[in-house]
């Protein structure tokens, strides 16, 4: 693992998670959460963020998938915060629009040190397969709370639930990739007038 990487283990009475993240990867890794559609969404973050992301999770699926999805979000947020470190020399802000057929998603992120999620998404369906669409928000809320980032997610168009979700995860991956890219002009300075993030 290089300096911009982290490994997180999170074990509770509800879930057991092991997650590794490398910000300077190629999209490699396996995602095995026991929730097929969610694995597909994690693949979008990794592939479009160019993050090596490996996730193994075991959850209380007999209850539902909520705890597993939320706790993976928490673990990914913890890993991201550790991997970006003090944020010196980073672009800090990132944004992306991603279309998928009729759907269009937008993600805008600030490595602000302040957790905040602005989520303007309405799904036309409650389920995508067995996946509860409410869990998209739960995942990103867990992520921002523990990554210490401000994230705006917007669905600008879309009729198909699968397409809408996928545009959001792709756009978020690309926005995070932009934000944690090194800014050569900035050198080792912090991208903040406050002197702290």
Key traits:
alpha+beta; 10 strands; Ribosomal Protein S5, domain 2; 4 helices; four-stranded mixed sheet; globular; single chain
Itemize the secondary structure elements and their pairings:
Blueprint: E1 5-11, E2 15-22, E3 31-32, H1 36-49, E4 52-59, H2 66-84, E5 93-100, E6 103-110, E7 116-120, E8 127-128, E9 131-132, H3 134-147, E10 150-157, H4 161-179
Parallel strand pairs: 3-4, 7-10
Antiparallel strand pairs: 1-2, 2-4, 5-6, 6-10, 8-9
Helix pairs in contact: 1-4, 2-3
**Domain module count:** 1
Radius of gyration: 16 Å
Helix content: 25-40%
CATH class: Alpha Beta
Q: What CATH architecture label applies?
A: 2-Layer Sandwich
Number of strands: 10
Mean pLDDT: 97
Task: Determine the N-to-C terminus distance.
Answer: 24 Å
Tally the helices: what do you get?
4
Q: CATH homologous superfamily - what is it?
A: Imidazole glycerol phosphate dehydratase, domain 1
Strand order of the largest sheet: 1-2-4-3
Oligomeric category: single chain
Compressed to H and E, one letter per element, the order equals EEEHEHEEEEEHEH
β-strand amount: 25-35%
Overall 3D form: globular
Which spans have pLDDT < 50 for at least 5 consecutive residues? Answer: none
User: Which structural class matches the secondary elements?
Assistant: alpha+beta
